[in-house]
Amino acid sequence: MTAQDYIQEALLQLIQQKAYDKITITDIAKRAGVTRISFYRNFDSKDAILKQALERAFSAYKEEYGCDLSFPTLFAFFQQNKTLIDCLYKSEREIYIAQLLTDKQSLAQLPIEVAYSYAFVGYSILGACTAWYQRGMVETAEEITKIMEEQKSS
Fold first, then answer.
1. Which H or E run contains 75?
2. Most buried residue, 5, 55, 78, 111, by CB count within 10 Å?
3. Which helix (H) or strand (E) holds 11?
4. Are 121 and 98 in contact (CB under 8 A)?
5. Residues 7, 26: contact at Cβ < 8 Å?
6. Which residue from 79, 48, 73, 49 is spatially nearest to 61, judged by alpha carbons?
7. CA-CA distance, 11 to 86, in Å (whole number)?
């Protein structure tokens, strides 16, 4: 494991134990077994750690599913990365998920119809995933997809 891995793991563990705003860089460095200097060599902030963790997880998602941004695959992504997703919500940084989904290209550079479509899909997915998360992620990805398909056809 690299220093970045230890730092990321330390932050994710700390988020499970206390409020995000109360976690200091010193807390993270101590938990990770690195110095503050080492922390700042690897990251600019706590948010940078969360963004990188999400980007890494999403990279693995894209390797498995390609460009398929459908509800079934994204619910599976949430299930596979439950600890990270939980940390994003606990730190009130879940917006990073929608930003990742809509940041394929700069929305300002896209044709208007495409930009609004990307934004609509990205934030709609985040909304559905948020409801699922808040309900405890009890249903499987397959069950929630079936529910959504039944609603669509009614």
1. helix 71-80
2. 78
3. helix 3-17
4. no
5. no
6. 73
7. 12
Decide: 57 and 77 in contact? Cβ < 8 Å.
yes
Compute the distance between CA of residue 87 and CA of residue 20 in angstroms, rounded to an integer. 9
Report the candidate in 47, 12, 40, 42 with the shortest Cα–Cα distance to residue 26.
Answer: 40
Is 50 in contact with 93 (CB distance < 8 Å)? yes
- What separation, in Å, do the N-terminal and C-terminal C-alpha atoms of the chain show? 50
Q: Tens digit of pLDDT for each residue in 99-152?
A: 887 765 567 777 888 778 777 877 887 888 888 889 888 888 788 878 878 877
Neighbours of 120 (CB within 10 A): 11
pLDDT tens-digit profile of 95-105?
Answer: 888 888 776 55
DSSP result, 97-139: HHHHHHTTS-GGGS-HHHHHHHHHHHHHHHHHHHHHHHTTS-S
Question: Which amino acid belongs to residue 8?
Answer: Q
pTM, full prediction: 0.81
CB-based contact 97:88 (threshold 8 Å): yes
Cβ atoms < 10 Å from Cβ of 79: 15
